Amino acid sequence: MNEGLATMSVTKWKSVQMAGGIKSAVAMIRRQLATASKTETAPPETFSRMLLRLMEERNISARDLYTAACMDRKLFSKIRKNDEYQPKKNTAIRFALALGLSLEGTKKLLEAAGFTLSDSIRKDRAVADCITKGRRSVWEVNRVLAAHGLESI
User: Fold this and answer.
1) Measured between alpha carbons, how far is 76 from 117 in angstroms, rounded to an integer?
2) pTM of full prediction above 0.90
3) Integer Cα distance of 96 and 102 in angstroms
4) 56 burial class (0-12, 13-18, 19+ CB within 10 angstroms)?
5) What is the DSSP letter of 44?
6) pLDDT at 64
7) pLDDT digits (tens, 9 = 90+) for 70-88
């Protein structure tokens, strides 16, 4: 709720009443409520909801998605059923690859999971480079990571 509405002083209320009466005061409160509702933002989309939305937008079946992400059906079912599911970073990266997301889309999906691709982490830079170059298979990315002596996703 708008702070101005909640903290309207008695003096201000009386001055509004004297200036234009109750109708004026009610109109002012309505304006403040309208402003407050416009400035409130929706809660951020959860990882699970974003994953399911992206899957639907790209018309990818659940089976195709979890297979391309090298995940098992049980984990995907857990993600689908639990709106507040918190994946590991590698899991989120695998799903981003399976969805064929751009680097920006990958960053948004990771952000929904509470992660980011950091420029200061070699593995993250290698994953970002793979995405930029169109290497979107989990196997391809893991080959690149192995070639650089980095842990697979």
Assistant:
1) 23
2) no
3) 8
4) exposed
5) P
6) 96
7) 999 999 999 999 999 999 9
